[in-house]
Automatic annotation (TrEMBL):
Ranges where the Peptidase M20 dimerisation domain occurs: 215-310
Protein name as it appears in the record: N-carbamoyl-L-amino acid amidohydrolase
Keyword set, alphabetical order: Hydrolase, Metal-binding, Zinc
NCBIfam families named among the record's database cross-references: hydantase, PRK09290.1-5
Family: Belongs to the peptidase M20 family.
Binding site for allantoate: 213, 274, 287
Length: 420
């Protein structure tokens, strides 16, 4: 029954999809908003109190016996990358609702309120900046740095908010730093091969890497490809190619520290076969746990930009659109998750996350635990992304146990976890 119920829940969420290949549910799109409102109905079916905050985060609350106590919070995100998979983010949100459903079935009351949060715009695919909703909630949003951003269709972030009946100028109102969470717990697919390769059921995350993201604009001169001599060209794409290769080389120099760098988005103007490219916009992602290593990669890229300007006589503008700090997660919650795995005889591995998650910003609001479950072949952000149902359910079992431990089960006027 639990298997079928959860499978149906995940399928309901993934019916909201704008593409034919994989899952495309981009932040603040019609599909993402429809999915969010569909999930609201699912939460209301479990008698949760639901609201949307100023950044578009969905917050569903199960009252506790003592409403003055800080909430125990679970969450993740419902938006996807372009042509992504069925599990990234969606598993964490649906797993949280499954935990609530189990508590309701068992008629378990808790002293602490319990919340589910589906964070807005976790993925950077649309605007080049990730975890916008959780940043806003943690008081980390910098409106002036992101208000100029546009998606691939030229839609500004301000317009995307407006299309969803949100006001970008009011995003600061999502800030919850004046209140505290008792704990934030996120269940997520690993998005890497470690758990599968080591045949472990659960990953307990010790720290989360964070990105520096650059928007680089290279302005050359568009000209006829047949009549412009090679030595007279100002080809913006060739300059971008040099910079992309330097990005790769710089990251390879930091392999021991685990730092990586990617050019994942490149737009060529005017984009015609018979025109020398006059302008290129590219986005560069540098990430790692070691801040000094990450900064060394950034420095080499910036030096390369200076060299390209002189060598090719081009105008190159570089702007840092996001610079986040890696975080280490709560030792007390880590030890608790280890104990839950051991009690359930589930094999586990302590590991770091190379991908960013909303959980990293929730460290501003309370203790944080991040639980990983295996990804087949380590594949993610791809239609082939897959996590077995039994692995998801094992993760939900650990999540449920941790929530009950933290929320404190109430029974006959006394909390079960309280000392006699």
């Amino acid at each position: 029954m639990t298997k079928e119920r959860y499978q149906n829940l995940l399928e309901k969420v993934n019916q909201y999809n704008s593409g034919e290949i994989g899952i495309t549910r981009i932040a603040f799109s019609n599909e993402e908003q429809a999915c969010t409102h569909g999930f609201i109905r699912m939460c209301k079916d479990q008698h949760l109190e639901v609201r949307l905050d100023a950044s578009g985060n969905l917050i569903a609350r199960r009252p506790g016996k003592n409403p003055s106590l800080p909430p125990v919070v679970m969450g993740s995100h419902l938006d996807t990358v372009y042509q992504g998979g069925k599990y990234d983010g969606a598993v964490g949100v649906t797993a949280a609702l499954e935990v609530i459903t189990r508590l309701n079935e068992k008629r378990i009351e808790t002293d602490h309120p319990i919340e589910i949060i589906s964070f807005a715009c976790e993925e950077s695919s649309r605007f080049g900046v990730s975890t916008i909703g959780s940043k806003a909630m943690a008081g980390l949003i910098e409106k002036d740095k992101i208000r100029h951003l546009k998606d691939r269709n030229g839609t500004s972030i301000d317009k995307a908010f407006s299309d969803c009946a949100l006001d970008f100028e009011s995003i600061d109102q999502a800030n919850r730093t004046k209140e505290r969470f008792k704990v934030f717990l996120e269940l997520h697919i690993e998005q890497g091969p470690v758990l599968e390769n080591k045949n472990k059921k659960i990953g307990i995350v010790t720290g989360i890497a964070a990105p520096i993201r650059l928007l680089v604009t290279i302005n050359g001169k568009a000209s006829h490809s047949g009549t412009t001599p090679m030595h007279m060209r100002k080809d913006a794409l060739l300059a971008a190619s040099e910079l992309a290769l330097e990005t790769e080389a710089s990251a390879k120099m930091e392999q021991k520290e685990g730092t990586v760098a990617t050019v994942g988005d490149l737009i060529v103007h005017p984009g015609a076969m018979n025109v020398v490219p006059g302008k290129v916009e590219m986005k560069i992602d540098i990430r790692g746990i070691d801040v000094k290593s990450r900064d060394r990669v950034l420095k080499r890229i910036e030096e390369k930009i200076s060299g390209i300007k002189k060598k090719r006589d081009l105008n190159v503008e570089s702007k840092i659109i996001s610079r986040e700090r890696p975080v280490m997660l709560s030792t007390d919650i880590l030890n608790e998750l280890k104990a839950e795995c051991e009690a359930k005889r589930l094999s586990y591995e302590l590991l770091q996350s190379g991908a960013g998650h909303d959980a990293m910003h929730m460290t501003k609001l309370g203790s944080v635990g991040l639980i990983f479950i295996p990804s087949k072949d380590g594949v993610s952000h791809h239609p082939d992304e897959y996590t077995a149902l039994d692995d998801i359910l094992a993760g939900i079992d650990v999540l449920e146990a941790a929530v009950l431990k933290q929320a404190i089960v109430h029974k006959e006027g006394k909390s079960v976890n309280e000392p006699v």
